[in-house]
Amino acid sequence: MKIQRVIGPIVGSVMALLSSGAQAAEIKVLASTAVKTTLQELTPQFEKATGNKVDITFAPAAALKVKIEEGEAFDVAILAAPITDSLAGSGKVDTARTTIAHSGIGVAIRKGAPKPDISTTEAFKRTLLDVKSVGFTAAGATGAYLKTLFEKLGIAEELKPKLKLLPGAAGEAAASGEVEIGMTQISEILPYPGAELAGPLPPDIQSYTYFSAAASPASKEADAAKAFIKFLAAPSALAVIKAKGMEPG
Prior knowledge:
Blueprint: H1 2-19, E1 26-32, H2 36-50, E2 53-59, H3 61-69, E3 76-80, H4 81-89, E4 98-110, H5 121-130, E5 134-137, H6 141-153, H7 156-159, E6 163-166, H8 170-176, E7 181-185, E8 195-200, E9 208-215, H9 222-233, H10 238-243, E10 247-248
Parallel strand pairs: 1-2, 1-3, 5-6, 5-7
Antiparallel strand pairs: 3-9, 4-7, 4-8, 4-9, 4-10
Helix pairs in contact: 1-9
């Protein structure tokens, strides 16, 4: 099978090292919260297959960028592609980068609440103007895009009284009823059982964020770090990536 041809050399080479007496590695990963649920499922599979241990810190990509620039030690960074590219340009991560997945922006509501009409851009505008509160996380690419989008749609001023910039997850805020509508990456809505995905933004105003992985040039576990990145990008990871609200590559 194709999966076996791709995964086999990756896992096989690492297992060969382990069986020859090499000590299992422990790698530190800094990852965007958008890929949290994907990594939470795939990481144990990697650990079981290789014997390596993976310690992951999840946070908004922008916050992790600051940590890396300030000298935070890590082996692998999985962040929004523009941020990874910027860090590669300054030598903070390897220039070899691997795109893991991409995700669009979705609209979250409290589970069981009537689904708003967001089928078209005009319907989306009407919905935002009709609801009592709209929340999103200010930090990161999604928040920046939404602010620009509201301006483009000509509703920025009307939305100001009902906008709530959230310190935490928009999906969680929708689930708790803190906001009537929350907007964030679809992969950050699905994990909350009390939240429901009303749908993605209409195609003509949708924005996709790509997430790429890169190893640290200073990593002492370079082989294990690169094996982990290859594992996440392998065909066997595709089903998990899709199940978590993202698309591969």
